[in-house]
Each structure stands twice: as structure tokens, then as C-alpha cells.
User: Fold this.
Amino acid sequence: MKIVLEFPGFLQAGTLQSGESLELDTGTTVSQLLNSLGVSEDHQRHITPIINQEESRAEIELQPGDHLFLYIPVGGG
Amino acid sequence: MNAKIRITVNGKRRILDKPLPVRNLWEEQKETKKPDIVILNGFPLDDWGQSFVKDGDSIVLVKKGQMPSRDEFESMLTARNSPDLQKHFRKAVVGIAGLGGLGSHVAMALARTGVGHLVLVDFDLVEPSNLNRQCYDAADIGRNKTDALADRISRFNPFVKISRHQLKLDKHNVFSVFSECDVVVEAFDRAEGKEMLVHAFGSLDFHSKCLVTASGLAGIGSPNDIQTRRLTHNIFLCGDLVSAAKQGEGLMAPRVMIAAGHQATAVLRILAGRE
Assistant:
């Protein structure tokens, strides 16, 4: 299945660019995706997955056509 | 029969039956004292004792250093913003979580625009290191930010209702502090606080309220990288998403103020029903 993934530029996600679509196995969870992309534990703790503009959780299974945005707040104000 | 003459005086519309000298505009209203300056259609009028108003004129009668009445001020805001927008802004309640670089400028912008009620929240005092980007001056150093900012706002808009909470927001008190608000602005410095508010607004308790959060505004990167995007049905995110405050990437007034401008604009768009 295909999904679209967006993430802030400081996040290291292998060779993947933010906004690209990627092919995943059916039933892949957000957490499994982040592990497969090599996203560090430290970053994963602060990631809020936003799926199709709804706040979600890392253990949720992604669905075909999902848009996943990885929200990570950065300090400063 | 003479046509009616339609003018505005200090933001209020008036209809005259015949041309009048400008001085009659205040002489016929007992409550209006003789002005120090008369501004006609945007320009100060030198011979206002002799001039006559004509159809379509906009006249502002100014007493130097004197705040207009509530009625006059509201009329001017309505004229500037349009009646349709101002009715939304006037009845709105907006919370601001954190009164630093972002929050102090967002509060100023919303108060100037005419938002009716602001809920200001910060536990902190004004420090010398805040002066590089926050809306305070040396006389405010050592004061509570809530008090210093409320005083500052009252000097240009004494009619906005301000609720002050000098406390540290957490996941327990956030719901009661902002219970009255239509929209809340997240203006914290630390990432943990931003995360806490995003989760609060993702919960059912705040499902019908909006949050405008900010992330990525430090340094001197391109101002055009700072954008507003919708994260969820009720959460909006302003910033470049990347530029965290850290050693060598400090928080500087221009980009902080740009992000604050994005946040204030997002609030107004939400209140106006355009988001």
C-alpha cells in the first residue's frame, strides 16, 4: 500500500525526503515505519503522528492512501 | 432639495442636511471638547475654523494625548476592520500561553485589532535577557509578565478585557484556565510545553476549541520559510518546523515577530470563520 509521509527537515529518515510517497506492507504501524526508517528513540518519544489531519498514536496501523505528518515540537518562543 | 451629506466623525457615520463648517461638528455636541487638531481625509487641516465639510469626508477630532471614548474607539476599529469582522473579534475570548517573544507580540496584535477578551498566562518575571525580542522595556524588568503586558496593552486599548493568570500551565490546570476561550495561542519557549498543549487540544475536552502553536523560529534563516499549516481540524502550526533555539541559533526579534504575526493572523482567520 502507498502512503505519503511528511516530517520536519531535521529528522533523519534514511534517504527519504519529506512529502514523498512510499510503499509499505499492509498492517504496518507508525512505530514500525519509524523503526524501519531508522528514526532515533529520542526523536520517537517526542513524535505525535498526525494521520489525515487527526492526532493519532504510534501503534496505529496505517491504511492505503494515508497522509502521515510527524509532528515534533522544537523549542523557542 | 439639497442632497444629504454623508460624513464620518471619529469613525461614526453622520448625515447632514446642509454643508457645515468643521467647527460646528464639535460645537453642536456638548460632550465633544474643542480639538487640538482636526484631520480631514487623512491630512491635518490648518484652517479648520473656516473649512466646510463635503459629502464623503472623514474627519477625526483629536485632543492631544487623550484616549478616545469606548464608543469612539469601537467605531474606529469597526471602520478599519469592517463591521462583519469586528463583530467576530469583539465577542472573542483568546488565551495566550506564555508571554515571551511570541506571546507578548501576539497579545499586542490581537488587542490592537480589537479582540474583546484576552486570557494572559505566564508564571515568569521580565528579565534583562528578554528585551532583545519581547514586548517589554527596562521599566518592566522584575515585574510579572502578566501585569507588565496588561499595563502596556491598556495604554493603547483600555477597553479590552484582560484576565491574568500568573501560574505555570500543566496538563491538569490547562483545561480550567482556558475553559472560556475560543482559541488558544501556544507561545511557550520549551518544546515540552508545546507538546503538552498539542495533546490537550487533541483530547475530547478541547475538541471544539482551536490551538495555534509555533515551532521553528530561531536564528536568521529565511523569513519565507515560516509558514502556517493546519495540523488537525483544530490545531494550526506556525514556523519553519526546524529552527530550534540553541547555541549559535538564538532567538532574534525579526523571526520571532514574524512567527507571532503568523499566529495572530491565524487566530483572526479562525475567529472570522475563514479556517
